[in-house]
Write a structure and sequence with these properties.
Structural class: mainly beta
Strand content: 35-45%
Order of helices and strands: EEHEEEHHEEEEEEEEEEEEEEEEEEEEE
Length: 314
Protein backbone atom coordinates (compact mmCIF):
# COMPACT_ATOMS: atom_id res chain seq x y z
CA UNK A 1 0.00 0.00 0.00
CA UNK A 2 1.19 3.53 -0.73
CA UNK A 3 1.90 6.18 1.85
CA UNK A 4 0.99 9.85 1.29
CA UNK A 5 2.48 12.85 3.09
CA UNK A 6 -0.07 15.53 3.98
CA UNK A 7 1.45 18.90 4.91
CA UNK A 8 0.29 22.47 5.54
CA UNK A 9 -2.64 23.85 7.52
CA UNK A 10 -4.35 20.49 7.94
CA UNK A 11 -8.10 20.49 8.76
CA UNK A 12 -9.18 18.60 11.89
CA UNK A 13 -11.53 16.53 9.75
CA UNK A 14 -8.55 14.88 8.02
CA UNK A 15 -7.46 12.86 11.05
CA UNK A 16 -8.49 9.37 12.05
CA UNK A 17 -7.64 9.99 15.72
CA UNK A 18 -5.81 13.01 17.11
CA UNK A 19 -5.72 14.07 20.76
CA UNK A 20 -4.29 17.58 21.10
CA UNK A 21 -2.94 17.50 24.65
CA UNK A 22 0.49 17.44 26.22
CA UNK A 23 1.50 13.87 26.96
CA UNK A 24 4.79 12.11 27.48
CA UNK A 25 3.26 8.79 26.38
CA UNK A 26 3.42 7.19 22.97
CA UNK A 27 -0.02 7.17 21.27
CA UNK A 28 -0.39 3.39 21.65
CA UNK A 29 0.29 3.60 25.40
CA UNK A 30 -2.05 6.60 25.79
CA UNK A 31 -4.90 4.70 24.12
CA UNK A 32 -4.22 1.41 25.92
CA UNK A 33 -4.26 3.13 29.32
CA UNK A 34 -7.72 4.52 28.51
CA UNK A 35 -8.98 1.25 26.97
CA UNK A 36 -9.44 2.80 23.55
CA UNK A 37 -9.26 0.55 20.45
CA UNK A 38 -8.38 2.26 17.19
CA UNK A 39 -8.75 0.64 13.75
CA UNK A 40 -8.29 3.58 11.39
CA UNK A 41 -6.10 3.81 8.29
CA UNK A 42 -3.81 6.47 9.78
CA UNK A 43 -1.47 6.42 12.73
CA UNK A 44 -3.15 7.81 15.89
CA UNK A 45 -1.57 11.04 17.13
CA UNK A 46 -1.29 12.37 20.69
CA UNK A 47 0.63 15.53 21.55
CA UNK A 48 0.63 19.24 22.30
CA UNK A 49 -0.46 20.24 18.80
CA UNK A 50 -1.56 23.89 18.40
CA UNK A 51 -4.87 24.32 16.58
CA UNK A 52 -6.57 27.39 15.14
CA UNK A 53 -10.36 27.59 15.33
CA UNK A 54 -12.65 29.59 13.06
CA UNK A 55 -16.04 28.45 14.30
CA UNK A 56 -17.39 32.02 14.34
CA UNK A 57 -16.60 32.28 10.64
CA UNK A 58 -18.35 28.97 10.04
CA UNK A 59 -21.48 30.34 11.73
CA UNK A 60 -21.48 33.47 9.56
CA UNK A 61 -20.94 31.53 6.34
CA UNK A 62 -23.65 28.99 7.17
CA UNK A 63 -26.19 31.71 7.95
CA UNK A 64 -25.21 33.82 4.93
CA UNK A 65 -24.02 36.77 7.02
CA UNK A 66 -21.20 38.62 5.16
CA UNK A 67 -18.79 39.07 8.11
CA UNK A 68 -16.08 36.99 9.77
CA UNK A 69 -17.44 37.33 13.35
CA UNK A 70 -21.17 37.44 14.19
CA UNK A 71 -22.99 40.23 15.99
CA UNK A 72 -26.62 40.26 17.13
CA UNK A 73 -27.66 43.19 14.96
CA UNK A 74 -26.72 41.30 11.81
CA UNK A 75 -28.29 38.08 13.09
CA UNK A 76 -31.54 39.96 13.80
CA UNK A 77 -31.47 41.42 10.31
CA UNK A 78 -30.98 37.94 8.84
CA UNK A 79 -34.10 36.65 10.59
CA UNK A 80 -36.18 39.82 9.93
CA UNK A 81 -36.37 40.85 13.59
CA UNK A 82 -36.43 44.35 15.08
CA UNK A 83 -32.98 46.02 14.90
CA UNK A 84 -31.14 45.83 18.23
CA UNK A 85 -27.88 44.77 19.80
CA UNK A 86 -29.63 42.31 22.12
CA UNK A 87 -29.66 38.53 21.45
CA UNK A 88 -32.53 37.06 19.46
CA UNK A 89 -35.23 35.40 21.60
CA UNK A 90 -34.64 31.70 22.39
CA UNK A 91 -35.96 29.57 19.57
CA UNK A 92 -35.25 27.81 16.29
CA UNK A 93 -34.60 29.85 13.17
CA UNK A 94 -34.26 28.83 9.51
CA UNK A 95 -31.56 30.63 7.55
CA UNK A 96 -32.80 30.89 3.96
CA UNK A 97 -30.93 31.44 0.72
CA UNK A 98 -32.33 31.75 -2.78
CA UNK A 99 -33.39 28.13 -3.23
CA UNK A 100 -32.32 26.50 0.01
CA UNK A 101 -32.30 26.55 3.76
CA UNK A 102 -28.59 26.99 4.41
CA UNK A 103 -28.74 26.21 8.14
CA UNK A 104 -30.89 25.91 11.23
CA UNK A 105 -29.83 28.31 14.00
CA UNK A 106 -30.86 27.56 17.58
CA UNK A 107 -30.65 30.27 20.23
CA UNK A 108 -30.32 28.65 23.66
CA UNK A 109 -29.86 25.09 24.84
CA UNK A 110 -31.69 22.17 23.27
CA UNK A 111 -33.10 19.64 25.72
CA UNK A 112 -33.23 17.01 22.96
CA UNK A 113 -32.16 16.58 19.34
CA UNK A 114 -33.63 13.49 17.70
CA UNK A 115 -32.63 11.90 14.39
CA UNK A 116 -34.68 9.37 12.41
CA UNK A 117 -34.80 8.18 8.80
CA UNK A 118 -36.95 6.03 6.55
CA UNK A 119 -38.71 5.87 3.17
CA UNK A 120 -36.25 8.36 1.70
CA UNK A 121 -36.88 11.04 4.33
CA UNK A 122 -34.46 12.35 6.95
CA UNK A 123 -36.01 13.81 10.10
CA UNK A 124 -34.49 16.13 12.72
CA UNK A 125 -36.63 16.94 15.78
CA UNK A 126 -35.71 19.89 18.00
CA UNK A 127 -37.02 19.89 21.59
CA UNK A 128 -36.58 23.21 23.39
CA UNK A 129 -38.40 24.41 26.51
CA UNK A 130 -41.35 22.07 25.90
CA UNK A 131 -41.72 22.97 22.21
CA UNK A 132 -41.15 20.26 19.61
CA UNK A 133 -40.24 21.26 16.04
CA UNK A 134 -39.58 18.83 13.19
CA UNK A 135 -37.66 19.31 9.96
CA UNK A 136 -38.07 16.57 7.33
CA UNK A 137 -36.18 16.55 4.04
CA UNK A 138 -34.77 14.41 1.26
CA UNK A 139 -30.99 15.04 0.97
CA UNK A 140 -29.98 16.78 -2.24
CA UNK A 141 -33.54 17.52 -3.37
CA UNK A 142 -36.13 20.27 -3.01
CA UNK A 143 -38.39 18.15 -0.84
CA UNK A 144 -38.64 19.53 2.72
CA UNK A 145 -41.29 20.10 5.38
CA UNK A 146 -41.19 22.16 8.59
CA UNK A 147 -43.86 22.40 11.26
CA UNK A 148 -42.65 25.81 12.45
CA UNK A 149 -45.07 27.72 10.23
CA UNK A 150 -42.68 29.01 7.54
CA UNK A 151 -43.29 28.15 3.89
CA UNK A 152 -40.24 26.22 2.67
CA UNK A 153 -41.84 24.39 -0.25
CA UNK A 154 -39.34 23.62 -3.02
CA UNK A 155 -36.28 24.48 -0.94
CA UNK A 156 -33.39 22.09 -0.27
CA UNK A 157 -31.53 21.78 3.03
CA UNK A 158 -27.75 22.14 3.40
CA UNK A 159 -27.82 19.92 6.52
CA UNK A 160 -26.16 22.39 8.91
CA UNK A 161 -27.40 22.91 12.48
CA UNK A 162 -25.78 25.54 14.73
CA UNK A 163 -26.67 25.84 18.42
CA UNK A 164 -25.74 28.86 20.55
CA UNK A 165 -25.68 26.67 23.65
CA UNK A 166 -25.50 22.97 24.53
CA UNK A 167 -27.47 19.92 23.41
CA UNK A 168 -28.26 17.69 26.38
CA UNK A 169 -29.80 14.65 24.68
CA UNK A 170 -28.91 13.49 21.18
CA UNK A 171 -30.60 10.26 20.22
CA UNK A 172 -32.00 8.03 17.50
CA UNK A 173 -35.73 7.42 17.09
CA UNK A 174 -36.85 4.26 15.31
CA UNK A 175 -34.70 1.79 13.43
CA UNK A 176 -32.34 4.32 11.82
CA UNK A 177 -30.95 7.75 12.65
CA UNK A 178 -29.70 8.61 9.15
CA UNK A 179 -30.27 7.92 5.50
CA UNK A 180 -27.22 6.60 3.66
CA UNK A 181 -26.99 9.98 1.86
CA UNK A 182 -27.33 12.14 5.00
CA UNK A 183 -24.35 14.24 6.10
CA UNK A 184 -25.62 16.38 8.99
CA UNK A 185 -23.23 18.94 10.50
CA UNK A 186 -23.90 19.96 14.12
CA UNK A 187 -21.85 22.83 15.58
CA UNK A 188 -22.41 24.12 19.12
CA UNK A 189 -20.64 26.41 21.59
CA UNK A 190 -21.15 24.17 24.59
CA UNK A 191 -21.54 20.48 25.35
CA UNK A 192 -23.00 17.63 23.30
CA UNK A 193 -24.42 14.59 25.10
CA UNK A 194 -25.24 11.47 23.04
CA UNK A 195 -27.68 9.15 24.84
CA UNK A 196 -28.33 6.38 22.27
CA UNK A 197 -26.77 4.68 19.29
CA UNK A 198 -26.82 6.62 16.02
CA UNK A 199 -26.90 4.31 13.00
CA UNK A 200 -27.60 4.56 9.29
CA UNK A 201 -30.46 2.65 7.70
CA UNK A 202 -27.98 0.66 5.57
CA UNK A 203 -25.68 -1.31 7.85
CA UNK A 204 -25.12 -4.35 5.66
CA UNK A 205 -22.49 -6.77 6.91
CA UNK A 206 -19.05 -5.78 5.66
CA UNK A 207 -20.17 -2.32 4.55
CA UNK A 208 -18.13 0.59 5.90
CA UNK A 209 -20.03 2.62 8.47
CA UNK A 210 -19.60 6.15 7.14
CA UNK A 211 -20.48 8.96 9.57
CA UNK A 212 -23.97 10.38 9.15
CA UNK A 213 -23.33 13.36 11.45
CA UNK A 214 -20.49 15.62 12.52
CA UNK A 215 -20.51 16.37 16.26
CA UNK A 216 -18.48 19.58 16.64
CA UNK A 217 -18.01 21.86 19.65
CA UNK A 218 -16.44 25.27 20.22
CA UNK A 219 -14.95 26.17 23.60
CA UNK A 220 -15.70 29.86 23.02
CA UNK A 221 -19.10 31.53 22.91
CA UNK A 222 -19.87 32.54 19.34
CA UNK A 223 -20.77 36.11 20.35
CA UNK A 224 -18.96 37.00 23.61
CA UNK A 225 -15.86 34.82 23.09
CA UNK A 226 -16.17 33.67 26.71
CA UNK A 227 -14.82 30.21 27.56
CA UNK A 228 -17.42 27.39 27.75
CA UNK A 229 -17.32 23.64 28.46
CA UNK A 230 -17.03 21.93 25.07
CA UNK A 231 -16.96 18.21 25.91
CA UNK A 232 -18.62 15.62 23.67
CA UNK A 233 -20.12 13.00 26.00
CA UNK A 234 -21.29 9.46 25.21
CA UNK A 235 -23.77 8.62 27.98
CA UNK A 236 -25.32 5.37 26.75
CA UNK A 237 -26.04 1.86 28.02
CA UNK A 238 -24.97 -1.54 26.71
CA UNK A 239 -23.18 -1.75 23.36
CA UNK A 240 -23.80 1.13 20.92
CA UNK A 241 -22.61 2.22 17.48
CA UNK A 242 -22.30 5.97 16.87
CA UNK A 243 -21.97 6.75 13.16
CA UNK A 244 -20.39 10.13 13.73
CA UNK A 245 -17.23 12.13 13.28
CA UNK A 246 -16.18 14.09 16.38
CA UNK A 247 -14.33 17.43 16.47
CA UNK A 248 -14.36 18.47 20.12
CA UNK A 249 -12.78 21.62 21.53
CA UNK A 250 -13.04 19.83 24.88
CA UNK A 251 -12.68 16.18 25.83
CA UNK A 252 -14.33 13.13 24.32
CA UNK A 253 -15.97 11.48 27.34
CA UNK A 254 -17.40 7.95 27.42
CA UNK A 255 -19.35 6.58 30.38
CA UNK A 256 -19.58 2.91 31.35
CA UNK A 257 -20.89 1.60 28.03
CA UNK A 258 -19.21 -0.13 25.10
CA UNK A 259 -19.23 2.45 22.31
CA UNK A 260 -17.97 2.38 18.73
CA UNK A 261 -17.50 5.76 17.03
CA UNK A 262 -17.15 4.92 13.35
CA UNK A 263 -15.69 8.23 12.18
CA UNK A 264 -12.58 10.18 13.00
CA UNK A 265 -11.99 11.85 16.37
CA UNK A 266 -10.23 15.14 17.09
CA UNK A 267 -10.34 16.19 20.75
CA UNK A 268 -8.39 17.82 23.57
CA UNK A 269 -8.48 14.66 25.70
CA UNK A 270 -10.19 11.28 26.05
CA UNK A 271 -11.89 10.20 29.28
CA UNK A 272 -13.22 6.65 29.18
CA UNK A 273 -14.84 4.61 31.93
CA UNK A 274 -16.13 1.87 29.61
CA UNK A 275 -14.93 0.43 26.33
CA UNK A 276 -14.34 2.77 23.39
CA UNK A 277 -13.51 1.94 19.78
CA UNK A 278 -12.71 4.57 17.13
CA UNK A 279 -13.03 3.55 13.47
CA UNK A 280 -11.51 6.68 11.95
CA UNK A 281 -13.64 6.69 8.76
CA UNK A 282 -13.57 9.92 6.75
CA UNK A 283 -16.66 12.09 7.14
CA UNK A 284 -16.63 14.58 4.21
CA UNK A 285 -17.98 17.48 6.30
CA UNK A 286 -17.44 21.14 5.33
CA UNK A 287 -17.28 22.31 8.96
CA UNK A 288 -14.22 20.09 9.43
CA UNK A 289 -12.10 22.83 7.82
CA UNK A 290 -13.01 25.29 10.60
CA UNK A 291 -10.33 23.88 12.91
CA UNK A 292 -6.83 23.52 11.49
CA UNK A 293 -3.36 22.50 12.63
CA UNK A 294 -0.98 25.05 11.06
CA UNK A 295 2.27 23.84 9.54
CA UNK A 296 1.44 20.20 10.25
CA UNK A 297 2.72 17.04 8.56
CA UNK A 298 1.43 13.48 8.79
CA UNK A 299 1.28 10.25 6.82
CA UNK A 300 -1.91 8.64 5.54
CA UNK A 301 -3.13 5.78 3.34
CA UNK A 302 -1.67 2.83 5.17
CA UNK A 303 -3.32 0.44 7.58
CA UNK A 304 -2.64 0.03 11.31
CA UNK A 305 -4.67 -1.51 14.11
CA UNK A 306 -4.21 -0.88 17.81
CA UNK A 307 -6.16 -3.14 20.18
CA UNK A 308 -6.13 -2.96 23.96
CA UNK A 309 -5.16 -6.36 25.34
CA UNK A 310 -7.71 -7.69 27.80
CA UNK A 311 -7.05 -9.55 31.01
CA UNK A 312 -9.03 -12.78 31.30
CA UNK A 313 -8.19 -13.25 34.96
CA UNK A 314 -11.03 -12.67 37.38
Amino acid sequence: AGVDLVAGDVPAGEFGLLVARRSGEAPASFLAEREVDYSGSQLPLVGDFPASSETRRLLCEALGVPVQAPDWRRIREKFSLEPADAPVPPGIYLARGEAEVTAVFVEGDLQKLEFSAGDGWQSIVFDQDGRRSELRYQPGSGAMTWNGGEDIAGLSFKEKVIVHGSVWDIRQAGTAAFLAASRIELLVCGRLVVRSGLESESLAIGREKFPGVLLMTSDRDFFTDEAVNADVVMETEGSKTIQAQVIAAGALVNGDAQVEITGGVFSRDIENSGRLRVGGASGQFAFGSGVRLPGFKFLKNFRVHFIQEGNDEE
